[in-house]
């Protein structure tokens, strides 16, 4: 046998470069197709340019971790199959780090922060009524277990509909102009209200008041409903800035609650600003998990958590849950709160 015949039958030379497996290349390509869109959401978490598109996209930042997890799975498989692993390994490490980053934003929602309750508990219910269309009987049923209720998008006849189920007997203290149509908002309380003011120049009514909660003392309460990004970026930003400014003006030694339809998720800049000012979502404090509230009237589950109960460090939350009400596109949110030291 000649030397050339020997070489032909022996396969490639020992020092030849073997091509990457086609399946490995396909896995990496698909991994990048999942990771790159997720990276857009990561950038938005740190930098949200003004504009309706950015504000709407930012509502889905929480879903980026799904893209990263799928990408990571594909990369790990590719890494196991790879002949040359350096490049794939670097990409895998970067994606794994991004999974950890997003996990650090979502994970705390599932872990109670340990604020001890030092007073008896009281409950706050917040619900967007969707043009007053929420089932009044169901709303009244849920409110039997609440002490303070914030209702948004109430109609002029909302109070009368609720009164058929004993609403005024349960909540003798109330504020809110029900004659503004869907722009109206109301606060109802078992406890006395005082120092009530309507926040100026907002699309929907927004209120600030003081609730005299037994054993807790005076609690400042803001019932909010800033306009959504479809109102225009300038309106959206300005109304959130107003909420932040009013909240910052409240006495630091007094409990503060901000409850309502924020039209923003925790990842939006407006919510991050409130957190930077010392306010926390009751969902986060209680470790209640990720609780999407909108849209609630579809064949699929709610996708984004835009309804919140925010509290300062004078309060704690022991339980937070969402509740379904027919006739509205929001889930209600019920927070069990108490004083803390």
From TrEMBL:
<feature type="transmembrane region" description="Helical">
    <location>
        <begin position="25"/>
        <end position="47"/>
    </location>
</feature>
<dbReference type="GO" id="GO:0004527">
    <property type="term" value="F:exonuclease activity"/>
</dbReference>
<feature type="transmembrane region" description="Helical">
    <location>
        <begin position="87"/>
        <end position="111"/>
    </location>
</feature>
<feature type="transmembrane region" description="Helical">
    <location>
        <begin position="59"/>
        <end position="80"/>
    </location>
</feature>
<keyword id="KW-1133">Transmembrane helix</keyword>
<feature type="domain" description="Endonuclease/exonuclease/phosphatase">
    <location>
        <begin position="125"/>
        <end position="330"/>
    </location>
</feature>
<protein>
    <submittedName>
        <fullName>Endonuclease/exonuclease/phosphatase (EEP) superfamily protein YafD</fullName>
    </submittedName>
</protein>
<keyword id="KW-0378">Hydrolase</keyword>
<dbReference type="InterPro" id="IPR005135">
    <property type="entry name" value="Endo/exonuclease/phosphatase"/>
</dbReference>
<dbReference type="InterPro" id="IPR036691">
    <property type="entry name" value="Endo/exonu/phosph_ase_sf"/>
</dbReference>
<dbReference type="GO" id="GO:0004519">
    <property type="term" value="F:endonuclease activity"/>
</dbReference>
<dbReference type="Pfam" id="PF03372">
    <property type="entry name" value="Exo_endo_phos"/>
</dbReference>
<keyword id="KW-0540">Nuclease</keyword>
<keyword id="KW-0269">Exonuclease</keyword>
<keyword id="KW-0812">Transmembrane</keyword>
<keyword id="KW-0255">Endonuclease</keyword>
<keyword id="KW-0472">Membrane</keyword>
């Amino acid at each position: 046998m000649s030397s050339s015949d020997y070489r032909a039958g022996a396969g490639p030379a020992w020092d030849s470069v073997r091509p990457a497996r086609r399946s490995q290349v396909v896995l990496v390509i698909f991994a990048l197709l999942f990771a790159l869109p997720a990276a857009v959401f990561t950038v938005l978490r740190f930098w949200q340019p003004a504009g309706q598109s950015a504000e709407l996209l930012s509502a889905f930042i929480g879903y980026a971790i799904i893209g990263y997890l799928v990408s990571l799975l594909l990369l790990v498989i590719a890494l196991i199959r790879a002949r040359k692993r350096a490049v794939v390994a670097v990409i895998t490490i970067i994606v794994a780090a991004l999974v950890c980053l997003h996990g650090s934003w979502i994970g705390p929602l599932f872990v109670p922060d340990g604020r001890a309750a030092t007073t008896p508990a009281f409950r706050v219910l917040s619900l967007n009524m969707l043009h007053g269309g929420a089932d009044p009987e169901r709303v009244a049923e849920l409110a039997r277990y609440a002490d303070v209720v914030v209702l948004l998008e109430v109609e002029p006849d909302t109070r009368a509909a609720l009164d058929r189920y004993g609403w005024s007997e349960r909540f003798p203290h109330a504020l809110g102009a029900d004659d503004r149509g869907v722009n109206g908002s109301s606060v109802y309380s078992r406890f006395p209200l005082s120092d009530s003011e309507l926040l100026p120049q907002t699309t929907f009514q927004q209120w600030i008041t003081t609730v005299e909660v037994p054993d807790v003392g005076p609690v400042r309460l803001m019932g909010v409903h800033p306009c959504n990004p479809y109102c225009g970026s300038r309106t959206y930003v300005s109304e959130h800035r107003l909420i932040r400014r009013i909240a910052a003006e409240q006495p630091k030694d007094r409990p503060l609650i901000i409850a309502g339809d924020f039209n923003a998720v925790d990842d939006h800049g407006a919510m991050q600003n409130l957190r930077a000012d010392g306010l926390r979502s009751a969902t986060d404090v209680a470790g209640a998990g990720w609780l999407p509230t909108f849209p609630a009237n579809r064949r699929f589950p709610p996708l984004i958590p835009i309804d919140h109960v925010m509290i300062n460090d004078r309060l704690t939350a022991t339980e937070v849950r969402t509740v379904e009400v027919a006739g509205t596109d929001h889930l209600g949110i019920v927070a069990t709160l108490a004083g803390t030291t």
